[in-house]
Design a protein that fits this description.
homodimer; alpha/beta; 11-stranded mixed beta sheet; two-stranded antiparallel ribbon; 15% strand
Amino acid sequence: MAEIALHRLSIAELRAADAVAVTEHYLDRIARLDPRLRAFTHVDADRARVDAAWSAALIDRGEARPLEGVPIGIKANIDVDGWPTTAGVEGRRDAIATSDAAVVRLLRDAGAVIIGQLNMHEAALGATTDNPAFGRTENPHGSGRTPGGSSGGSGAAVAAGLCAAALGTDTLGSVRIPAAFNGVYGLKPTNGLLPDDGLVFLCRRLDSIGPLARSVADLGAVFAALSPGAATSPLGRVATLSSVDGHEMEPAVRTAYTAATMALRGLGLVVETVATPGLDLAGTRLAGFIESAREAAATFAAERRSGGTSGQFNALMDFGSDASAATLAAGEAAMADAAEILHRVLTSHDVVLLPTTPQAAFAHGRAPNTQADFTAIANIAGLPALSLPAGVDADGLPVAAQLIGRAGSEPMLLELAARLDTILDAYRFPADFA
Amino acid sequence: MAEIALHRLSIAELRAADAVAVTEHYLDRIARLDPRLRAFTHVDADRARVDAAWSAALIDRGEARPLEGVPIGIKANIDVDGWPTTAGVEGRRDAIATSDAAVVRLLRDAGAVIIGQLNMHEAALGATTDNPAFGRTENPHGSGRTPGGSSGGSGAAVAAGLCAAALGTDTLGSVRIPAAFNGVYGLKPTNGLLPDDGLVFLCRRLDSIGPLARSVADLGAVFAALSPGAATSPLGRVATLSSVDGHEMEPAVRTAYTAATMALRGLGLVVETVATPGLDLAGTRLAGFIESAREAAATFAAERRSGGTSGQFNALMDFGSDASAATLAAGEAAMADAAEILHRVLTSHDVVLLPTTPQAAFAHGRAPNTQADFTAIANIAGLPALSLPAGVDADGLPVAAQLIGRAGSEPMLLELAARLDTILDAYRFPADFA
């Protein structure tokens, strides 16, 4: 008889499973497979076993909470009581948190088993998760490929079945990019919607905590624990953006984007291209990056002085600090224009469809600078955005589509993503980690 | 006030238009634009004007027939009384037909104005319409590009608005390939469905006469005049073929194919990939080509003896005649297998979706040998197949999707194509011929 693949159960199924066996199974997978993936920077097996036993008792008593016994990983810039909140920075290796972040409390209250801490790009200022202090996380769909970032450990661990879901953070795309590159689902909520105490900020104005999971239903379950759900509004009109259509993207990304467009039309929705001549995607992304780098220079000044930041990160912080007044003013203008354009599109349309990234996961060491060109606008406009798998490229690497909605429209995004996902049918578990 | 673009009217609209003005408009366009396109080999303005005047009278009397006053072009291998049926062969330049082919009679009975004869690949044995005797037809979407073939004049003239619809013939793809390359709609009916007297056959077993038009509705209107319509059966399951998925195709073709798949799913149809390990697409196409070349060697023996065939065509006929018994046996086996596989797929599924061609229109002189790899199986299995525009490549050249149905399922194919077409929204009139 084949072993039951507990890491393939959905959150709904996990709530009726043997919680102790589930956590042991995930701990075993982490022990066996993470040396290859390098997604975890900290695992708390003892605490996880205690929590799993309590979950098992509640399940036995028929009192299972929404995430009962569900093993969840947490990005290393979010406080978990007793663990170091490194934010991927060497100088914070011993920054032990003395309480849980609010989002972690919410997950525990819903029954989740917080199983370990996940690697990230240094300070979240970048998207390769090739971390000079905590190691290079691999993409489970292609060894030697980046898992994206900055929440690269979250994306890789969820995709490879080393946790059932994870939290990441998203400043310019850092939940959605690793969701795209690892072929899983990621949600960046509306700016300010989720409590952010206990987060090491990269950029207060742009940061959002968000979940990653292996299905839309699981993503919705984790999000519901973080933000009990509003009702969803009827949906009729989808916009695509002419600036996106004209942007360079890999053929597989364009195929997936076109396929998603046709799928939505087939579902009976009107999909229209909106002309967005004033939208400067690259300029907006660069402006957000500079703002983040400037804030990082202040946030991590102490670690830098004591040699606890890498040369590469130092150079990025300097790039932000050295930006001229003219550059900053141009950046603010680009961001203001982008936000205004996106808000305007969302007065005539209910949702915007675009690719998540212009490319699939690239080889480590070969990062293009366009990764966040399609994601940053949601952060800058303060809007929720969801990434879902939409296809694979010729090498079998996932590519993804993204839905951006109005502020507070997460339940609608989740419902639409579920319908679209049924048609695209693009989610695949990575064969090398089965 | 802008000139009314009579060449943009649908067949339904033409039936209520000024038939004399319509035919004059089309004659004027042929005179102005065909020197650039070289789609027509013969134009009969006098006869067209007489027919148009009669159509105008019937429209005035409220007695318009289904194709009343609709200017239609006829491929040069189909008899039109008083015109040379050249079949694109120099040696048939003076082969004047003494009566209309049955399909031409049907069109005239429905009110069509038969406006001219259209260039084709020499003897229909090839798909570039670079004819040594009658000239090289251009693709209206890209000068210097092939219009495909063998019905290349039909595809180019319809696309460029030099006739409202056209007849072509299809042995291994010769209606669908020019439909694909010129971005219009083409239907190869079930083998044997339409009367074929008055046709210069290329391969009796594989030939079908079929229409090309600028919309699914127009295509259906012409087809209905040729074969009054059966009712359509409910549709549930669409197959794609693993042999097609694994076949090389240009990125834009794969994008369009994927988009069509998602569009059909969105429409609520089940789309499933059927494993077709025994299906040899290239071998089947080659076998059909050899059979056609052998038959052509017999059909055009007299013209060849008198020097009325080109050196290139002679070489192709010799290639067929020289095929060994082993090659012929292997070809028959490949064709039998392909037909059996396609018939088997169509017991579990109602329709097969595949691209029409693996590529967009190539430059004249650079023909790949894979053009008919996706089309020949319908001829060999005797099944109806419809090509519709599904996208454009980076150069703006059209690419197409193809639907193959069970024998006699043309009304269903037309209905499904209409629904799919609404979603794909890929038809574009060529800008250079507006």
